[in-house]
Request: fold
Amino acid sequence: MLGSVALANKTVRIIWALLMSKEDFRAPATAMA
Reply:
């Protein structure tokens, strides 16, 4: 159970970091849509 939560948290952090790094490449409205 704890391992699944940790893995999910890690994955979300990676995806969030990728979205934030591409913010100036994409329009904020497009990123949010």
The helical segments are 2-21, 28-32. The longest helix spans residues 2-21.
